[in-house]
C-alpha cells in the first residue's frame, strides 16, 4: 500500500510538471508544418510565402499553444525567420494567431 501511494504521488508530480509547461514538438509532423503554413497565411502579409517550420514547442492549457520558429520568403526580399504563436482550442477546429514576429 505504501509503495502504491509513493508511485501515485510520483506520477502526479510528473503530470503536474507537464501540464502548462512547454514541450518540444516534432517539426516533421505534418500538423506542425500545417500550423506554420496557416500562420503565414493568417498574417495577411502580401508576398510572404511559407517555407518550413524549423523548431517548435507546445503548451497544453485549455487548448494547445504552439510557439513555432519558421522560415518564410518574400518576393523582392531575402528569406526571413519568424516566431509564430498559434492557439488551437480543444474540441474544435478553431485557431488563433496570437503573435507573428521576425527573428533578428
UniProtKB/TrEMBL annotation:
Keywords (A to Z) from UniProt: Plant defense, Protease inhibitor, Signal, Thiol protease inhibitor
Domain Cystatin: 17-103
One Gene Ontology term from the biological process aspect of the record: defense response
Keyword Signal: yes
Pfam families noted in UniProt: SQAPI
Molecular function GO terms recorded: cysteine-type endopeptidase inhibitor activity
InterPro entries: Cystatin, Cystatin_dom, Cystatin_sf
Name under which the protein is recorded: Cysteine proteinase inhibitor
Annotated source species: Oryza brachyantha
Amino acid at each position: 500500500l505504501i509503495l502504491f501511494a509513493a508511485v501515485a504521488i510520483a506520477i502526479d508530480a510528473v503530470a503536474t510538471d507537464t501540464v502548462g509547461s512547454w514541450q518540444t514538438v516534432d517539426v516533421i509532423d505534418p500538423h506542425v508544418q500545417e500550423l506554420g503554413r496557416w500562420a503565414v497565411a493568417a498574417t495577411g502579409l502580401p508576398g510572404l510565402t511559407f517555407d518550413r517550420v524549423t523548431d517548435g514547442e507546445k503548451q497544453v492549457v485549455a487548448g494547445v499553444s504552439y510557439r513555432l520558429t519558421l522560415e518564410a520568403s518574400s518576393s523582392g526580399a531575402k528569406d526571413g525567420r519568424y516566431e509564430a504563436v498559434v492557439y488551437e482550442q480543444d474540441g474544435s477546429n478553431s485557431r488563433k494567431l496570437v503573435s507573428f514576429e521576425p527573428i533578428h
